[in-house]
Amino acid sequence: SGLRMSPSDLARIERIIVAACGTSLYAGTVGKYLFEEFADLPTDIEQAAEFRYRNPIIQRDTCMVAISQSGETADTLEAVREGMRKGATVLGICNVVGSTIARECARGVFLHAGPEIGVASTKAFTCQVAVLAMLAIAFGRARRLSMDEGAKRVAALRRVPDLARAALEREDAIRKIAEKYAHAEHCFFLGRGIMMPVACEGALKLKEISYIHAEGYHAAELKHGPIALLDSTVPVVVAVPDLPGKIKTIANMQECRARGAPVIALATEGDAEVRAHADDVIELPPCEAFVSPIPVVVAEQLFAYYVARAR
Ligand code: BG6
């Protein structure tokens, strides 16, 4: 039945908690950047199993966003129930109509992404990001986001299918790179800002689909320990589209290559700065920062798929 929240209901919310697991948790973490940027809403990310047992702090103006593709993940369902017991306004973002979480939330947004056939959540992730962006615009318009700024973001969302299509058109280049690194037994994915959860999602896809040990890390965090694991056998995938902080991520790429680790960059097409510090580059279309997770994650999904095929 939709959000069932009027603009004044939206305006009364002072804090958002996202509760989810796995891929949905990473989509929710992308949402954190959108809620904070578009609506100035402090947003906490909660792994659902942690949330349900830790006696969370819920205020009367807290909105809990439960994200679950299947709508049946037990930890997320129990997190919904705990949030309700403590008086939160709970929204569900689910893909399966009629699922338990959707029914118990009684308000929210269905993805209509079509059924996810495998365990790995792919189109659900991109649709979750799109829905979270729409929610962030709705909350923002009940605050300081102007009609013009809201309209610009809606226009950018309408261009998302073109971005996904452009990423899919790189399939052959991605396949070649995937085959080159398919023998690896360990892999890191790096990103900063909104690309950090996208890096974690790329690592999860590689784990789930190709059974390679893969870890997602903040680009700046790698040097605080894990960099000791890098050598020529450990490829590092870096999500580094042309966004603020790119130059810092390029420095992290140099740190990886200094230890002999091959660097695969997911970059904005034509970015010579990034290309100069990568062994391989997957070029993606330029776009607004808030929709950049979508072409990048499509490339990560294809990378994981073709690595798995090669193995
Ligand atoms: C895990 C799957 O079991 O559940 C992940 O392996 C998925 O791919 C996670 O993201 C959460 O599932 P859901 O349906 O709650 O989004």
Question: What are its keywords?
Answer:
binds 6-O-phosphono-beta-D-glucopyranose; 5-stranded parallel sheet; globular; 311 residues
Describe what this molecule looks like in 3D.
Helix 11 (246-258) links the parallel strand 8 (236-239) and strand 9 (263-268). Helix content is 48%, strand content 17%. The chain is α/β, with parallel strands linked by helices and 311 residues long. It has helices at residues 7-12, 22-39, 48-53, 74-85, 100-105, 123-141, 147-158, 160-168, 171-181, 195-210, 246-258, 272-275, 293-310, and strands spanning 15-20, 43-47, 62-68, 89-94, 108-110, 186-191, 213-218, 236-239, 263-268, 280-284. The chain contains 13 helices and ten strands. The model has no long low-confidence stretch (mean pLDDT 97). Helix 6 runs antiparallel to helix 7. The strands form two sheets. It has a five-stranded parallel sheet with strand order 2-1-3-4-5, with helices on both faces. It starts with 6 loop residues before the first helix and ends with a helix. The structure holds 6-O-phosphono-beta-D-glucopyranose. The site of 6-O-phosphono-beta-D-glucopyranose (BG6) has 13 residues, from helix 2.
